[in-house]
Task: structure prediction
Amino acid sequence: MNNNQMKAAINNTYGPPEVVKVMDIDKPIPTDKEVLIKVYATTVNRTDCGFRSAEYFISRFFSGLFRPKFKTLGNEFAGVIEATGKDVTLFKTGDKVFGYNDTRFGAHAEYMTMAENEAITTMPADITFEEAAPITEGGHYALCDIRAAKVKPGHNVLIYGATGAIGSAAVQLVKQIGAMVTAVCNTKNVELVKTLGAEVVIDYTKSDFTTIDQTFDFVFDAVGKSSFKTCKPLLNKNGIYISTELGKNAENIFLALTTPLLGGKKVLFPMPTICKENVIFLKELVEKGKFKPVIDRQYSLEQIVEAYNYVESRQKTGNVIITVN
Ligand SMILES: NC(=O)c1ccc[n+]([C@@H]2O[C@H](COP(=O)([O-])OP(=O)(O)OC[C@H]3O[C@@H](n4cnc5c(N)ncnc54)[C@H](OP(=O)(O)O)[C@@H]3O)[C@@H](O)[C@H]2O)c1
Result:
C-alpha cells in the first residue's frame, strides 16, 4: 500500500454483512472547503445496515436503485484533521473532531473528508475517540423525535426500546429536559436503564407495558416494535406517539398525515436531519455530563462483518464501535 492509499470497508453490491470486504483504495482528497480526517473510531449502526442491505426497497431512492451509491459506509466518526482545503477556516491540522455524515458516509475507512460547514465539530475535552464516535447517530435521531414531540419539564414520557442506540440516548436527552421517564427493556438491562435516569423501568419479559395504568404526554417507540393502536390507551388527551419504524404497511406515515388533522392523540413521523448546531448541542451535553452514549462491543475494521452480524442480531445494547487507526 502506498501513501496515497488506505484501508476501507467496501460494499460493491447490496446484501448481507458478508458483501463487505476490507481492501486498499485511494485516499480521498479534500476540496478547497473540505478537511481530510484520519479516522480513529467509527460505529456500525442500524443506518449503515439499512444502506448496506437495502432491505426496504424505498431506501434505494437514497442509496442507489440497482447498486450502492455509497461503497464505503460509516456515518459516525471521531478522528484527527490531517489536512485542510485552502478555504477552510473553522478547523486546523491536528484538531480532534467528531461528527456525522449520512449524505456521503465514508467513515468505515482510515481517512474520510467532510466539508467544514457539515455536521462536524471539535471533540469534547477528555474523552476518547471510541467515546466520541457514538455521540451522533442515536443522539440525533432521539433529539429530532423529542423536539418534534415538544417535550417539556414535568412531562411524562414512555420510552420503549430504551437500550438501543436511539433509546438509550432518548432516556438521557428527555431527562436533561426535566421530564419523567418510564423505560421498557429486557431484564439484563434494567439496572443500566436506571443509571441512564429512568424513574420507572418495565421489564418487557415480565409484564406488558401497554397494560399499565398510567398515561403519558409522549410514547416513543425507539425500537419500532409497537403500534399506535396498542399504545393509544397510554396517551393522555393530546399525547403524541412516535415510532422509529414505518410500522405494518407503513401505517405510521399514513397516521402521521391523518391523526394531526383530527385533534387529540396523534402520531408524528419526523424526518431526522442533522446539522453542525445539533452536533455542538450534543457535544455540550457530553461536556456537562448529561449525555454519555452507551457502548456495547468494540471491533477492529478487519472485523467489520462480525460487527454487522452482531448489530443485525437486534440485541446490541447502545452502540457498537469500530476502532480504525
Ligand atoms: N430508518 C432509519 O434510517 C433508521 C436508522 C436508525 C435506526 N432505525 C430504527 O430504529 C430502531 C432502533 O435502532 P437502534 O440502533 O437504536 O437499536 P437496535 O440496535 O435496533 O435495538 C437494540 C435494542 O432493541 C431492544 N429490543 C430487541 N427486541 C425487543 C423487543 N421485542 N422489545 C423491546 N425491545 C427490544 C434490545 O433491548 P433489550 O436488550 O432491552 O431487549 C436492544 O437493546 C430500529 O428499529 C432501527 O431499524 C431506523
In short: The mean pLDDT is 96. The chain has ten helices and 15 strands. The first strand starts at residue 5 and ends at 10. The radius of gyration is 20 Å.
